[in-house]
Amino acid sequence: MSSRGPIAAYRRLLAILVAVLLGCLATSHAAIAQTAAKPATQPPAPVVTPAPDVTPTPTAPPLSAPTAAPPPAAAREPAKPAQPRLARAIADPLKKLSEDVDSVSGRVEDAAENEDELNTLRSKLDELLAVAKELEQKIKAPLADVKSQIDKLGPAPGKDAAPESPQVAAERKRLGVYFSQLDGAAKTVKLAEEQIGQLVGRIQELRRALFTQALLKRTRSPLRPAVWSDMIEHSGTTMRLIGIVLKAWWLEIQPHLIEVILLLVASLLTLFGLKRLVKRLIRWVRGGDQPRERTQLARANAVVWTAPARAIPMLASLLLLYAGLDSLELLKPPIGDVVQVILQAALLFIAISALSRTLFSPNKPLWRVLPLDTPSANRLHFLIRAIAAVYAVDMVFREMNRAFYAPLSLTVAETFVSSIAFAMLLLAVVFTPFKRPPASEAEQAAELAEETAAPTFVAAMSPRSLKFPLLAIALVIIVVSAAGYVALGRFIAGQVVVTGSILVAAMLLHLAIRGLTREIADSERSLGHRLEDDLGLDTRRRGQLALALSLTLNALLVLAVVPVLLLQWGVAWADIQVWLRALIFGFEIGSIRISLARILIAGLLFTSILFATRVLQRSLGDTVLHPSRMDTGIANSIGTAVGYLGIAVAAAVAIAYAGFDITNLAIVAGALSVGIGFGLQSIVNNFVSGLILLVERPIKVGDWIVVGNDQGFVRRISVRATEIETFDRSSLILPNSELITGRVINLTHRNAMGRVIINVGTAYSSDPAEVVALLREIAQAHPTVLRHPEPRIAFVDFGASSLDFSVRVYIPDIKRTFDVQTDLRIAIFKAFAERGIEIPFPQQDLHLRDLDGLKQALAKVLAERQGGTAPKDVTEPPPKPA
């Protein structure tokens, strides 16, 4: 048994190996037979690699499938095309976008009472809107491609038409499915954008409701004694909490006491050093304190830079101190929050104080912007600083009440006190007389008499346009604060301080912009003189540059000021960002997208191309088109054509970059063509005539033309009219259509050569042959008269008083006609005088009939006037003339 065990094992192993070998031979034989059964002419099937976003086709059947011969090629069904699916770059963000929008939509109503959470959701919606816009751009290109492919296939055949091939039908189906997927994705994105817009509107409504509720929230009137007794009762707890917090902060400062002391010393050194440096800089820039009069514009320009310069030392010192304490980690809540608000309040007070000091200039009346005398300016400066101090202190106490959980009564009392103090200061400003600086004695006497005659209240309320609104604001603050609307009173006071400061600063910047543009436009100023000398800009060009610069800088000023004002009036920064983004980068009105940035860049492109065109025109005029190298008329036509071409190119580039479809403009132009044909027919006629004049050139600049009773030289041909300078130096503006359709004599059309005609008469006693020879000699002797064609002398006619002769000569320049005529006439006069040839006067015979009757009538009239008796023969009537 023991000897047979191994042998049996070997036999079983050998049998397994033989079975495996036979199985492999059978499989190989089946594969060879299947291959041999295929037609010999069939090419091998290509290997298709599916695209990443396409579902792969099923693979060949496994080897264990039946090995029956496949059907003939004609009997096979066409393979189904791969069904497309959305790319992962579109599908995944689209799915996440829908989920995020649904998530935010569910959280909006839960955060209806939490302004911070609403602001967070608002920012999240802005991010989702950006994602939606990006997805929309990703879908637009493939959607357009698929639609173009479907259009190439054409419409599907009808019932009676011949069926299309299976391959085309399958491709049509595949493209239709893919188009449906992309179109559905695009509609999903549009739906998400609509939901985001609705959620943004809802958040704005909730925030507006919270803002209104906070402003109009009414507490117990501060005039009630219960409010003050409650404040006194609970103020001890708040003070103890503040003491505990300050003690804990002191314990944190003690390990860093040396660093804090060094930080304070560095802040003070920074303050005094910068203050002294700024003071010297202001004195040096102003040119010292010489007592000379400054213009109002110069004073306003000085405020723009002196106000920030005076605020810099204190700002730098406080920022250094705050940054040092923060680096030492000594500004942890709640102390850190309070210190941050203290810094903000201090910065506001410093800015308003610097602006007020620069405006009123208590010690420098020559630099005072407002026309006030020194006592009024000093009083207003003190009151404005006091108002800013009250507002800053209120900011600090409000943050302390929030950080140390002060009771409501303490907050109400503090707000009421600060609001009443603010209103009292406003009333002090109202009743401060705005007296003008001392003028002449006569003006001072007139002002004193006017003040004496008018009531004190009326005299103090000047100017009324400023003081009556301030009086109304002060009274409103007092009334609403006393009624319990302390939040509303504080809000009004804050807007007076902050909004007023912003508007004053904006006005000063506007004055500075106006001063800069005046410097450019005025050639007597340094900047204007430099532009005129260095760049060759004349008065008109500098005026255009100043206007463009003024509009641009004022527009930027408005874009900078308006968001700050909106922030002060309770508008969220997220909403302002959306508006600014839409204004700058584009917003849609129907199917038109308007972008301020693109419009500005388009304007810059138009200006740049137009400037380059003008430079090219000037360069051509100085080189190729110079009168010494080319005819003046041809040079003018080429220069004008280059100008028009540059304007057309600049307009086309600017319009295309701004996003306006030129085809739409063509449609609009076609629609307006009928109106143009009727209403603007003459303008279009003159425009086309101007183009004809420039191209055909029947009339050129410099030509001497005669139009009706007017004649002169052509000075300028524009698209509407032609300017002709007459001989009396007046300008005749003639519409181009009259030059094209009317009768015009161009004396210098092809060349400047012209003919001069002089008519002269001699007495009948003169020898005509001698006169002709003498006139020919005179004409040939003149240096300007051309020899070819030669002068022509003609015996014109037998006149009534003279023998008429004509001298006709040609000169190279028709513009010298009058000079040549004068020279020839003088020469003829002298030659005739020397030869004794008479130039006769006009001769006429006067025959008078019946003189005797005329004498008798005259004698009768004289006798009647003298009172005498007429002779008998005079009384008889004169005989009738034969």
The gist of it:
The chain is of the alpha+beta class and 882 residues long.
Descriptive overview:
The chain has helices at 4-36, 88-108, 115-153, 166-215, 225-253, 257-285, 296-327, 335-360, 374-403, 408-430, 441-453, 456-460, 464-482, 486-521, 526-534, 539-568, 573-585, 596-622, 632-658, 662-679, 681-696, 736-741, 768-781, 817-835, 851-866, 872-875; strands at 587-589, 592-594, 704-707, 710-717, 721-726, 731-735, 745-746, 754-762, 792-798, 803-811. The protein is 66% helix and 6% strand. Helix 2 (88-108) packs antiparallel against helix 3, helix 2 packs parallel to helix 4 (166-215) and helix 14 (486-521) packs across helix 15. The chain has 26 helices and ten strands. The longest helix has 50 residues, at 166-215. With 882 residues, the protein is of the alpha+beta class. It is elongated, with a radius of gyration of 51 Å. It has a five-stranded antiparallel beta sheet with strand order 6-5-4-3-7. It has a three-stranded antiparallel beta sheet with strand order 8-10-9, with helices on one face.
Task: Describe this protein with a few key phrases.
single chain, 882 residues, alpha+beta, 66% helix
